[in-house]
Specification:
Number of domains: 2
Oligomer: single chain
Largest sheet: 6 strands, antiparallel
Number of helices: 15
Strand content: 15-25%
Number of strands: 18
Distance between the termini: 8 Å
Strand order of the largest sheet: 1-6-2-3-4-5
Structural class: alpha+beta
Radius of gyration: 24 Å
Shape: globular
Length: 471
């Protein structure tokens, strides 16, 4: 390849862009006034569709004859995951949540939420006082209440994850404020399973101890262990995701596909993502693979823990991947994911991190393209894949610091619709650990699968991520 100026390019040239790491066939271009930047229209191999972008002279290289031949061969390869790359982004899908969260004292002992919160029937709500800078969405107070030893609050559903996260921020802030009025050293925690002090368990009222929530259903017909509340020395917190698209009971085959796809992609991915924080003990009773409800508004997926409360970037990743899973079903593409139902169930129910990462490595080409279908940036898609493989500690300094990560204790620092620096997928590069992540190697499993994946000729993302191109 040789470096070229924009003025030297012409229609029909094959080029390589060093910064964006892809090749294209120029179909037309226009110079800017200063001659430095051009709008170049070209054929993008990844999507196999016309595309365009602004390029500067430093990034442009003209391909030599042998490289052109290689390019032509690549162009003839129909990407296996072209349909995944071009998935409907499902931006009209309303999403919400009703996360549970433990509050602990300075000795990391559970502070029962009934000590500082009202019951569900008493209709207490989250506070929306205080301006959220930059938010144009109307926020309404949401229910907040004790649910046994753990706290629970509702998140206002929205088709926009940015605005949904404003409501999530208000819920966490309200919970922290109410807890600190009871104990100034109280702290929110993403620990999803915690032992309860035997004395507190013994002295608690029956309504605080018994498991009283509505029963869940399981797509595989499985059930968790059923015991009386006082016979269980620990409690668990869930992070359920709600999808709003109307009554699904009339379309049982569809919601069964939704739940199973959420399991094999999102559920397995979260086993790896929350490797140090999720416990298999929680799934002895509930949160099993395939757990769901079908409320009037649509579907409630009940398998995940509350570990995604660790940081807005992580919750954005989880909710966006959930949305991608439903898009896979709507496009009849979920069977491209390579994992058996049996290993999916075993992976989730046993929190088997090693198996989860083996499955993600096996599906790396599809997974990166699925992530790309949202962010549209290859390097970001690959970084997200690394985070799912390596866990939240690879990108978040202190996942346990909910208050700091969500800016609950810094008045006016939360920016509406995006949270702030490094809190959305699009702003991941602003995260302090992003540069470290770029240099991270994933696993030996991944390296071993390279030859198999490349032999299939999956996609341009896969090949470039391995640094196998001659560029």
């Amino acid at each position: 390849m040789k470096k070229v100026l924009n003025k030297d390019l012409k229609v029909g040239d094959y080029f390589y862009n060093e910064y964006r790491k892809f090749k294209g066939l120029i179909t037309s271009f226009n110079y800017s006034i200063n001659g430095k930047y051009s709008t170049i229209r070209f054929i993008d191999i990844l999507k196999n569709t016309p595309s365009y972008y602004f390029y500067d002279n430093e990034n442009m290289f003209l391909l030599e004859e042998d490289e052109i031949e290689e390019f032509k061969e690549e162009q003839e390869i129909k990407p296996k995951y072209k349909a995944v790359v071009n998935l409907d982004r499902n931006y009209g899908l309303s999403m919400g949540s009703d996360p549970e969260c433990f509050v602990v004292n300075e000795d990391n002992e559970v502070i029962p939420s009934y000590e500082f919160l009202k019951s569900r029937d008493e209709n207490d709500t989250t506070s929306i006082e205080g301006h959220i800078m930059g938010s144009s969405a109307i926020q309404y107070p949401q229910p907040i209440f004790w649910d046994g030893f753990q706290a629970e609050f509702n998140v206002q559903a929205n088709t926009c994850l940015g605005w949904m996260h404003d409501s999530l921020f208000l819920g966490l802030r309200s919970l922290a404020e109410k807890a600190k009025k009871y104990d100034k050293n109280a702290k929110l925690t993403i620990q999803s399973t915690l032992d309860i002090n035997p004395r507190i368990m013994q002295d608690a009222k029956p309504e605080h101890v018994e498991f009283g929530c509505m029963p869940s259903f399981n797509i595989y017909g499985h059930e968790g262990i059923k015991k009386a509340g006082r016979d269980v020395p620990y409690r668990s917190a869930g992070g359920h995701i709600h999808f709003g698209f109307g009554d699904l009971k009339r379309d049982k085959p569809k919601f069964e596909r939704y739940v199973k796809t959420l399991d094999k992609i999102l559920g397995v991915s979260c086993v790896s993502l929350f490797a140090k924080y999720d416990k298999a003990e929680r799934r002895k009773m509930y949160g099993l693979a395939g757990e769901y409800r079908t409320p009037k508004h649509g579907l409630e997926y009940r398998t995940l823990s509350n570990a995604w409360l660790s940081h807005p970037l992580i919750s954005n990743m989880v909710f966006e991947l959930a949305r991608r899973c439903l898009s896979m079903v709507d496009a009849d593409l979920e069977n491209q994911w390579d994992a058996t139902e049996e290993e999916t169930i075993d992976c989730i129910n046993n929190c088997d991190v090693e198996l989860a990462r083996e499955i993600l490595a096996r599906n790396k080409a599809l997974f990166t393209n699925l992530l790309f279908s949202h962010c549209r940036l290859e390097e970001v898609a690959l970084s997200l894949y690394k985070i799912y493989m390596l866990g939240i500690d690879s990108i978040i300094d202190n996942p346990e610091d909910i208050e700091g990560n969500w800016k609950l204790n810094t008045k006016g620092k939360w920016i509406g619709h995006c949270g702030g620096e490094g809190m959305q997928i699009y702003r991941i590069k602003e995260n302090k650990k992003y540069k470290e992540l770029e240099n991270e190697k994933v696993t030996e499993i991944y390296e071993e699968l390279v030859k198999e994946i490349k032999a299939v000729g999956e996609t341009i993302i896969e090949e470039k991520s391995l640094g196998k191109k001659k560029a």
